[in-house]
Amino acid sequence: MWSAPGHEIAREHSHRGFWTPHTDPGADLHIDLIEAARRDILTKLQVVVAAAETVAYDIEQDRQRSQ
Questions:
Q1: Residues 20, 13 contacting (CB under 8 angstroms)
Q2: 33: closest CA among 45, 16, 12, 19?
Q3: Which of 3, 25, 37, 61 is surrounded by the fewest CB atoms within 10 Å?
Q4: Sequence ranges of the domains in the chain
């Protein structure tokens, strides 16, 4: 079943409902956590956008071939 990228990220980084972004050991400052969360989300969204662009390109190629 498909779920939004944000939901997948939250599920991958949560522990009993608490957000736990991937940081270096000992990096517990809130700024480090915010930056890690931002990085995780942006990376995942870039993958989703790249996949969507690939699908759109393939659809356009198929459309042009069928004409």
A1: yes
A2: 19
A3: 25
A4: 5-66
Q: Helix axis angle, 30-66 relative to 5-12, nearest 10°?
A: 140
Contact 6, 48 (CB under 8 A): no
- Cβ count within 10 A of residue 47: 11
pTM (two decimals): 0.55
CA torsion through residues 19, 21, 26, 28, sign:
negative
pLDDT digits (tens, 9 = 90+) for 8-63: 666 665 656 665 656 666 656 778 778 888 888 898 899 999 999 999 999 999 99
At 58, the amino acid letter reads D
3-class SS of residue 59: helix
Question: Who's near 6: CB < 8 A, 6+ residues apart?
Answer: 41
